[in-house]
TrEMBL record:
Domain Dipeptidylpeptidase IV N-terminal: 102-443
Residue intervals of the Peptidase S9 prolyl oligopeptidase catalytic domain: 533-729
InterPro entries: AB_hydrolase_fold, Pept_S9_AS, Peptidase_S9_cat, Peptidase_S9B_N, Serine_Prot_S9B/DPPIV
The keyword Aminoacyl-tRNA synthetase is assigned to this record: no
Signal peptide segment: 1-24
Keywords: Hydrolase, Protease, Signal
Protein name, per record: S9 family peptidase
SUPFAM superfamilies: alpha/beta-Hydrolases, DPP6 N-terminal domain-like
Organism: Psychroflexus lacisalsi
Length: 729
């Protein structure tokens, strides 16, 4: 017995010391961990399918040899099968940043010295490299925008100094398509600031299938008011700030006058296409027919979208489809023309976003998908199988799955299995798709699946190394649930302290974005902010998020209830949710905070000013403080104009409510070079707070845009916010 007791004692010592060792290994997260990339996930490199559907290409930089390459891989095996492009093998080109293959995959456009303009636009020096002859040709001596091959790869269209050009690769000659382009007056072939930001495209010219015609948009922005901002530069670089001036139409102000044009390469002639009354031309696309292209128009309210087919021989447009909504109609990239010029279209007209099939004349063939769920991504149509591939919320609004269905709406197949978020990247012939899967417990897992049935072909990458690393940290689960607020079941997540004790009380920080159609609560793994929330949880805070009315993926009516009243219902839901949280035994109702960025900053400001009996502290980063200061396209889509809806603008503006800011703590942050939500928003709010004699904290980050990043900027910002929370919540 004595020896057995001795052995038991040794076992107890061993077990307790092992447990202690495990606990000693786990540690809390620091801000330095977060911003050092300690928790970065391995990601699939951006791949592009080759037209054979069996291979894909990936751009990769070999630092050792300083060689930029585009390598070829097999979908089925994942093995490298060759190199398509190597900068070391191209005399006269030491490096390239971007590449774009021609349709026939015989030539490639290579970009060098590429610089950003705004969110999506760039300019640079570009070359055409012939993969067969190995000949390298510079497209233009100056920096250009949006170089694009003609379909047969004999020409390259591009924009320089607001004019459209094309280079004939057979004769090495350059033809000027337009001549009237002038900065801040006339733009040809690329979009203005507001189209780039709100309609999400830059290149505004399109080749016809035979490369004999160019359809393009012209922007006359002479009457659009200018916005200017100072850029200060680094200390010692300049004694005087540089001023950036660009056209920015604010709500209720004049937009650029946009017109549709057609250039015939054979006759070298331009012609204007006359359309019925419209304000915006948000999409331009050719059909499979070389003499037939489509143009979409929107009225200024954006509640009536029209689809025209234009005969490129007669220049006559024909109206084939009109989409109306009492609130607004979303513009998408889902329009797809089939071989017979029938087309796929998505619409919310039955209350949920679904897929429809129309004939060339605009008559409905059939509704392809239906149900109380939404199509969230249209991946394409396979001519061979007759199947449509899409992503949807059929398995719950916080989840995403990939499906296929016949064009007649029959024989729908779910191609993904696990509950969470699936995203697909299909091969050109729809033989395979790379599936990216994640949920709250699983970092991105990449697999190759058969498009026909979702069968696993091979595992690509599982991020197990990150998962193992995270086991060394004192993390809490991200709990998804719903709460009943103002008659609606709202999606929410919550992160509790790792040593959570339901008998104790904790302060709570609420995050939200709240913008129309957005989603902040989803069944996905940690983003960067989630690690920050884990850090706060380790310091004794509960962190939560609620997607209120106006957010997306729960049907048209839920999303569009905020029409003409941005900030009203969203604020009601955040206040009610905060009260529900505060009623929980483990939440200290006197220590509730809220924060957000951009639209979320607008909401956090309103929460602090209008509900400081509920919220003790708020942080607003890059907030809109009056929708009068924001652009026409976004703002008027939801609010109409200030002239028509003054009360909707002013009643929900934080500036209007500074007098109600009687208690609590408020931190206001902005970047001085924010071309999107101008720092004017914050300056106007600061002045209102000063004149109302309200004390608050604020920080301006010089020369930083809407993202407020670069160097140590993000570390500095999150240190500021962390200290503010610890001191005031």
């Amino acid at each position: 017995m004595k020896s057995q007791k001795f052995i038991l004692n040794l076992l107890v010592i061993f077990l307790t010391s092992s447990i202690a060792s495990v606990y000693a290994q786990t540690r809390d997260i620091t801000l330095e961990d977060i911003w050092s990339g300690e928790f970065s996930q391995e990601r699939m490199q951006s791949l592009q399918s080759l037209k054979d559907g069996k291979s894909y290409i990936v751009q990769d930089y070999d630092r050792a040899s300083q060689d930029m390459k585009v390598d070829i891989y097999s979908y089925k095996t994942g093995e490298k099968t060759g190199t398509l492009i190597s900068s070391k093998a191209i005399p006269g080109l030491s490096i390239f940043q971007t590449f774009q293959l021609s349709n026939d995959e015989t030539k490639v456009i290579l970009g060098t010295n590429v610089e950003s303009i705004f969110r999506r636009s760039t300019r640079g020096i570009f070359y055409v490299y012939d993969l067969e002859s190995k000949e390298l040709v510079k497209i233009d001596e100056e920096k250009i925008q949006s170089p694009t091959f003609s379909p047969e790869a004999s020409k390259v269209g591009y924009v320089k100094n607001n004019n459209i050009f094309y280079k004939d690769l057979e004769t090495n000659s350059i033809v000027k398509v337009t001549t009237d382009g002038v900065k801040n007056e006339i733009i040809n072939g690329v979009t203005d600031w507001v189209y780039e930001e709100e309609f999400s495209f830059v290149r505004a010219f399109e080749w016809n299938p035979s490369g004999t015609k160019l359809a393009y948009l012209k922007f006359d922005e002479k009457n659009v008011p200018e916005f200017s901002m100072d850029l200060y530069g680094n200390y010692g670089q300049s004694l005087y700030p540089k001023q950036e001036v660009f056209k920015y139409p604010k709500a209720g102000e004049e937009n650029a006058k946009v017109s549709l044009h057609l250039f015939d390469l054979n006759s070298k002639t331009n012609s204007a296409i006359e359309l019925d009354d419209y304000e915006y031309l948000p999409r331009l696309e050719w059909t499979q027919d070389e003499d037939l292209f489509s143009i979409q128009t929107l009225n200024r309210y954006q509640n009536e979208l029209k689809l025209y087919l234009v005969n490129a021989e007669t220049n006559q447009p024909k109206l084939v489809l009109t989409e109306k909504d009492n609130a607004y109609v979303d513009v998408s990239d889902d329009l797809t023309f089939l071989n017979n010029n029938s087309f796929i279209w998505t619409s919310e007209k039955d209350g949920w976003k679904h897929i429809y099939h129309y004939s060339e004349d605009g008559s409905l063939i059939n509704q392809v998908t239906d149900g109380a769920w939404e199509v969230t991504n249209f991946y394409g149509f396979d001519d061979m199988s007759g199947r449509i591939y899409f992503q949807s919320t059929e398995n719950g609004s916080v989840n995403r799955d990939v499906y296929s269905v016949l064009a007649n709406g029959k024989n729908k197949l779910r191609l993904t299995r696990k509950t969470g978020t699936h995203r697909a990247d299909f091969s050109a012939d729809f033989t395979y798709f790379v599936n990216t899967f994640t949920n709250t417990k699983t970092p991105a897992v990449y697999t190759l699946l058969k498009a026909s049935n979702g069968e696993l072909v091979r595992e690509i990458k599982d991020n197990s190394a990150l998962q193992n690393k995270l086991d060394n940290y004192n993390l809490s689960p991200k709990e998804l649930s719903t709460i009943n607020v103002n008659g609606n079941e709202l999606n929410t997540w919550m992160i509790k302290p790792p040593n959570f004790n339901p008998e104790k009380t904790y302060p709570i920080l609420m995050f939200q974005y709240s913008g129309p159609g957005s989603q902040s609560v989803s069944n996905t793994f940690f983003g960067t902010n989630d690690y920050w929330y884990q850090m706060l949880a380790q310091q004794g805070y509960v962190v939560a998020c609620v997607d209120g009315r106006g957010t997306g993926y729960k049907g048209r009516d839920f999303k569009k209830v905020t029409q003409k009243e941005l900030g009203k219902y969203e604020l009601e839901d955040q206040i009610s949710a905060a009260k529900l949280f505060g009623a929980k035994a483990f939440i200290d109702a006197d220590r509730i905070g809220i924060w957000g960025w951009s639209y979320g900053g607008f909401m956090a400001s309103n929460a602090m000013f209008q509900a400081n009996d509920v919220f003790k502290a708020a942080i607003a980063v890059a907030p809109v403080t009056s929708w009068r200061f924001y652009d026409t396209v976004y703002t008027e889509r939801y609010m109409t104009t200030p002239q028509e809806n003054a009360s909707g603008y002013d009643d929900n503006s934080p500036i209007t409510h500074v007098g109600e800011f009687d208690k609590g703590n408020f931190l206001l942050v902005h970047g001085s070079a924010d071309d999107n939500v101008h720092v004017q928003n914050t300056m106007q709010l600061i002045e209102a707070l000063v004149q109302a004699n309200k004390q608050f904290d604020w920080r301006i980050y010089p020369d930083k845009n809407h993202g407020i990043y670069g160097g140590n900027t993000r570390l500095h910002l999150y240190t500021l916010m962390t200290n503010f929370i610890k001191e005031n919540l």
